[in-house]
Amino acid sequence: VQLVESGGGLVQAGGSLRLSCTLSGLPFESYNVAWFRQAPGKEREAVACIENKNGRTHYKDSVEGRLTVSDDRGAKKVHLQMNSLKPEDTAVYYCAASRRIIWAQNVKAEWWSDAYWGQGIQVTVSS
Description:
Blueprint lengths: L1 E5 L2 E4 L4 E8 L7 E7 L6 E6 L6 E3 L7 E6 L4 E6 L8 E8 L17 E2 L3 E6 L1
Parallel strand pairs: 2-11
Antiparallel strand pairs: 1-3, 3-8, 4-5, 4-9, 5-6, 7-8, 9-10, 9-11
């Protein structure tokens, strides 16, 4: 099983990035995928999730309206479109895949401890 994030980088405040998570080695349609991020000195936090069964999406309140999660089942990818980026969005972003749906406004990463995780990708937003 492998999850690989791509699309990160450096962007100015107000700009956009699209992250992608490519899943392999598992049945894509059976896994729910969440995006987490971890800024220096802070806990890892969940920002978005998409359910495999119905495509339902969930967002952390502070990013809703700026971040959009979607999937491409044919390519076995999950995307995170990030618009109107702010310096406080600077973090390492991770995708995680689980058969379970675990979502709340303050999802803890350890609640997804049995999930498959990507290695993370850096997103830096300059002011």
